[in-house]
Amino acid sequence: MANHKSALKRHRQSLIHQARNRSNRTRVKNAVKAVNVALQAKDLDSARESLVKATSILSKAAQKGAIHWKKAARKVSRLSRAVNAAAAPK
After folding, report:
1. pTM (global) more than 0.90
2. Number of domains in the chain
3. For residues 54 and 79, is the Cβ–Cβ distance under 8 A?
4. Cα separation of 29 and 39, whole Å?
């Protein structure tokens, strides 16, 4: 454990940031899962709604620094491609 006052404060801050990042990453995982579940159930309306929510959650997580912005863009791209492919006429 740290001994200096500034190091103790930094440690407290890191615990707060760690909890916030963990929360954001969990929200991201749940949002992505919701889109994938809707796609597997072949529920296009629900998949589209979930995609909009997931896009927002991913953007916010990237903005806060919980995940890398390129990872967020990659996930949005793959989810969008999957929803569009499911909606395409066969």
Report:
1. no
2. 1
3. yes
4. 15
